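subagent[fold] <- orchestrator: predict structure for attached chain, return tokens only, no commentary.
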Amino acid sequence: METQGTSKPALENKKSAKRIRMIEEAYNLFVSKGVHATAIDEVVKKAGVAKGTFYLYFHDKYDLLDQIVLYKSTVLVRAALRELGEKYQTEQPELEEGILFFASRLIDSLEKNHDLVLLIHKKLSASLSVMEYLRDGELGPIVDSVIERLMQRGKVAMVGDGINDAPALTMAEIGIAIGSGTDVAIESADIVLMRDDLSLVAQAIALSRRTLRIIQENLFWAFAYNTLGIPVAAGVLYLFGGPLMNPMLAAGAMSLSSVCVVLNSLRLRRWRSGQ
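subagent[fold] -> orchestrator:
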């Protein structure tokens, strides 16, 4: 039993080593020859494995490309996280300082790996899967911690579209989902953008501020109008020798208050981005 227990991890390590070897050799071939010009036979020959072994780990050459981007990008992100942890072993950095340090280390690594950047550019879908993978793994607790610290400073909005974004959308005070996102993300969000355009986030914030300002204006003028109008309609002026308002005029004056509020609110129809 002990022999079986010790051989299983060794077998897993051997399988992982084969997979990583194929990824590394394929990466070198893709960089030197290009993805389309590289054949699977060349990859397995360089990696020293059988062709059947290739299909145990990858569906085709383009699935391999996805895995290359995922593997290489994950290595860079983990290295940046490790440097961040080493720099701030004894103290917790300021939020902006920690984010800037992590981002700068990641950018420095990408500048040194120009070939990887070109592969990421060619396979954008794979780079997006990298972020989803890391969000579920190493970056998950970090993102949650950042949101908690931001919430201590004020209102926090989170924008997301995937299943992995749902916890953060729920945690944030304002969750904003992309309309084409998953049902889980949409259900977790407070606001749903109807188009796949992140600039709509800024427009939504600007529109909400404009709406709030008009609501405040309506409350102020309605309060001021009713404060003056109700006593007059009730006959306060008559008590001091003034005229008694006709009930028909009083009813019309009260309706005028609602009309003014509605007309002021209709100004939102003329709102455009940038105002």
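orchestrator: received. Logging for downstream: The beta strands are 157-160, 174-178, 191-193. Confidence is low (pLDDT under 50) at residues 1-6.
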